[in-house]
Amino acid sequence: MPAPLEPLDVVALDGFLCGVLVQPEPIARARWLPFVADVEGRSPPDGFDPRPLHALVRRREAELRSAIERREWFDPWVFESDSPGDATDLDAANRAAVAAVLPWAAGFTAALETFPALLAADDDALTAPLALLYRHVGTDTLDDAEALNEEIETLEPPADLGQAVEEMVRATLLLADVAGVRHLR
């Protein structure tokens, strides 16, 4: 992307799209699409055509939307860490899993904070799935996170990347249930 734009990386973008899709009311593409090319939603400079990028993003959004509406498993775009480590060392496996899902969780929570309707819902059923996400990024950006922090404290760290990814998908589908996501546009 041309300067001064700061695009979401592909992993954060995938999480961001899921965070947009689980909102209680559909968010128009025109509102969230600018955040793909720039984390602050700034317009691209003259001469830059974002349409090819937007077409690819819309295709991924449609895949995710379909899976979330049907409450089916989807494969989040999460990549294993390149850091060396002993696969038999539980602490190393946990650190690698957390490092791998961090950008995805950051993208998801960025969408929730950019479009806060879901976070504003007063529903205790949000706490458990939000804890699965916010434990990776922290709750410092949230106003009233006491219950969320308490829930995070009860969670066991993911044993490996597979479990961490499963928790991200489970959190997404649970949030879709709470929000009443049906047919998105």
Describe this structure in words.
The chain has a single domain, classed as Four Helix Bundle (Hemerythrin (Met), subunit A), CATH 1.20.120. Helix 7 crosses helix 9 (161-179). With 185 residues, it is mostly helical. The longest helix has 25 residues, at 90-114. The model has no long low-confidence stretch (mean pLDDT 90). The chain has helices spanning 10-21, 29-32, 34-37, 51-70, 90-114, 117-120, 127-137, 146-154, 161-179.
**C-alpha end-to-end distance:** 27 Å
Shape: globular
Which radius of gyration do the C-alpha atoms yield? 17 Å
Number of H/I helices:
9
| Main sheet attributes: strand count, strand direction, barrel closure | none
CATH class, named Mainly Alpha
Order of helices and strands: HHHHHHHHH
Low-pLDDT runs of 5+ residues are: none
From the helix content, strand content and strand pairing, which structural class follows?
Answer: mainly alpha
Q: How many domain regions?
A: 1
* Helix share, percent: 55-70%
Strand content: under 5%
**CATH fold description:** Four Helix Bundle (Hemerythrin (Met), subunit A)
SS elements, strand count: 0
